[in-house]
Amino acid sequence: MSRIKKTINIIGIPYDEKSSFMRGSALAPDKIRETFHDGSANYFAENGVDIQNDVELIDKGNITVNKYEDIKPEIAKHLSENEKFIFLGGDHSVTYPAIDAIKEHHSSFDILHFDAHADLYHEFEGDRFSHACPFARIMELGVVNRLVQVGIRTMTKHLREQADKFNVEVIEMKDIQLISELKFSDKLYISIDLDGFDPAYAPGVSHHEPGGLTPRQVINFLHKLDCEIIGADIVELNPIRDQSNITAALAAKLLRELCGIL
Ligand SMILES: [Mn+2]
Description:
The protein has 262 residues and is of the alpha/beta class. The chain has seven helices and eight strands; from the N terminus they run βαβαβαβαβαββαβα. α1 (28-36) packs across α7, α3 packs parallel to α4 and α6 (215-224) runs parallel beside α7 (246-261).
């Protein structure tokens, strides 16, 4: 029996100018690719999907970004109706233009967001498009039905108010056992900020926030999803801060597992 292979496109977004604390994540897309293909691991996802043969994986390279406003149109050039996309950031500010571009092809969907931070600030240090703000901008687009954030452990009073305003479902790290009850049934986009993981597993990020997720928790949760996944991003790898390439290895592993479930 033959079947049509799914096409999964990888798009790098080498942009870190909206980082509030430390630059470096612009180097991440190439570092993740290099690690993905370095021969240290095979190309099978844990669920048995052979990334080399069972899916059509197309690396579109990195988009050219001179300024933040370039990101949406540069992404839009590559998007199409029936193909899947994995974006490699970049800092988390890139997720807003990515979603803004995707909404031309999907009129409503849910987002599952792993992070130490809610990234819901109305503005941060005078910038509404800071990497601390993308999910406020995304919710203002009006195309996301459910935003579910997992692993959050830095909530302020303002962020709790923003989460209430946008009806965000926040599973804070202190209540992480609640993910066992979490289910999705509609189209889903997945955004993974690597600082959602404990810095012990992911030291190569700009913001170290101890007490975080384990790779096993996240991967097991991804494998349990049985809804349609339209796309994903992996953001905030900062190769300058990484130790022994351990965070890049986690990013490459997540890329493989996302290819397995998309
Ligand atoms: Mn974060």
